[in-house]
Amino acid sequence: MLTAERDTAIRKGEINELPVAAGVKIYAGGVVARTSAGYADPASDKAGLTVYGRAAATIDNTDGAAGDAIIAVREGCFSYQGSGFTAADAGKPVFIVDDETVAKSGGTNKVFAGFIKEVKSSDEVDVQMGNSLRAAGAVAAVTAADAATQGSTYVQADVQAIATLANESKVQLNAVIAALKAAGLMAV
C-alpha cells in the first residue's frame, strides 16, 4: 500500500515486437495482424489473424523465412479508410478488409480491427486497435456472425473465437488470483 506518491512508468501506445511471416512485406502505417502461428502479417480477412495495430516501419521479408525479420507494431488510435460511415457508427466495432481498409460488417472470417473512436467522413474513421482489445474482438466477431446468420448455427470459426476468448479470460483470471495470493490479499 502506498504511503507517498509514486512515479509509475507509463507506456503510451503499447509497442509489440513481432517476428514477420515468410514472404511478406509490411508497409509503415499499415494494419498488422498476428497469424495463429505467431508471425506478423499485413492485416486481411484471412482466418486465424488477430490485429495488433499499426506498423511503425516498412519491413521487407519477401525473401526471408518466418521470423527472419522483426517488426515494431504500435497499439493506439489510427485513421483508416472504408465506406458508408456515419456519426452514429462512433463506438462500434469494425472489421478488416485489408491492411488499410476497415468495414462495419465482417467479411468471411470477421477479423476484428477495433472500435471506431471518431468518424472523420463517410470514408475515413479513427480506429482504436491493439492486442489488448482481443477479447472484445472475439465478442464482436460472434455478434457479427449472429447478425449475419440470424439464428443459424455457428460456424467453426465462431466457436473457435468463443473458445479462445474463454481460455484467455481463464489465463488472465488465474494471473490475477496468483497476484492477489502473493500479495497476501487472498487466502491460499
Describe the structure concisely for a colleague.
Helices cover 23% and strands 32% of the residues. The chain has 188 residues and is an alpha+beta fold. Helix 1 packs antiparallel against helix 2 (156-182).
Task: Summarize the SSE layout with pairings.
Elements: E1 15-19, E2 24-26, E3 31-34, E4 40-42, E5 50-55, E6 59-61, E7 70-74, E8 76-81, E9 93-98, E10 101-103, E11 112-121, E12 124-129, H1 134-149, H2 156-182
Helix pairs in contact: 1-2
Structural description of this entry:
By secondary structure, the protein is of the alpha+beta class. The chain has one domain (15-182). 23% of the residues lie in helices and 32% in strands. It has helices spanning 134-149, 156-182, and strands spanning 15-19, 24-26, 31-34, 40-42, 50-55, 59-61, 70-74, 76-81, 93-98, 101-103, 112-121, 124-129. The radius of gyration is 18 Å and the shape is globular. The model has no long low-confidence stretch (mean pLDDT 83).
Output the number of helix runs.
Answer: 2
Q: Count the E strands.
A: 12
Rg is 18 Å
Strand arrangement within the widest β-sheet reads 1-7-5-3-4
- Major sheet details: 5 strands, antiparallel
Q: How would you sum up the global shape? A: globular
| Low-pLDDT segments | none
Binned strand content: 25-35%
Q: How many discrete structural domains?
A: 1
What is the chain-wise order of helices and strands? EEEEEEEEEEEEHH
First-last Cα distance: 20 Å
Helix content: 10-25%
Structural class: alpha+beta
List keywords for this structure.
188 residues, alpha+beta, five-stranded antiparallel beta sheet, 32% strand
